[in-house]
Specification:
With about 180 residues, the protein is of the alpha+beta class. It has one helix at about 1-25; strands spanning about 25-30, 45-50, 65-70, 75-80, 85-90, 95, 100, 115-120, 125-130, 145, 150-160, 165.
Amino acid sequence: MLKEIWILTKTVALAALIALFTVQFLVQPTIVEGNSMEPVVSSGERLLVNKVIYRFSPPERGDIVVLKTGKDNPEYLKRIVGLPGEEIEIRRGLTYVNGEILDEPYLKERMMGEYGPYSIPEGNVFVLGDNRNNSLDSRSPSLGFISLDQISGRADFVFWPLFDAKVLAGHPAKP
């Protein structure tokens, strides 16, 4: 009996360590709060965030990322539309990268307002919500350009609700 309890204790401890390591360093489940990424991702959906991808390759345009904005501030889910060194501008409801219109088939409506042109500093990206008219993103002075070290990972998969499960990687945004 004592041997079985010891085996069970070791098994539970090992499982807990594996789960802790996975969530801390590899993949983290996250719940979406708010509608700034609609129609691609909706409030209440649960995502798997790949926390290791950017250790091996830089963020790419079109990646949906989780941002850490500070100790007491919430995390945000946004799409990278501008990369370091590029010029970004928004006019007549369209996003321009280096003077070319960005093809964004995932948007359901054109955004209001004008922005830029501004050059994205090295080590930073420019992010927007897919629901452009209802999103706090890089256009706002309170958020601005996002430092690469503020990105905690790439949202790769919606796993809940089960009937809405989908892969998020591969929603490209190309000029």
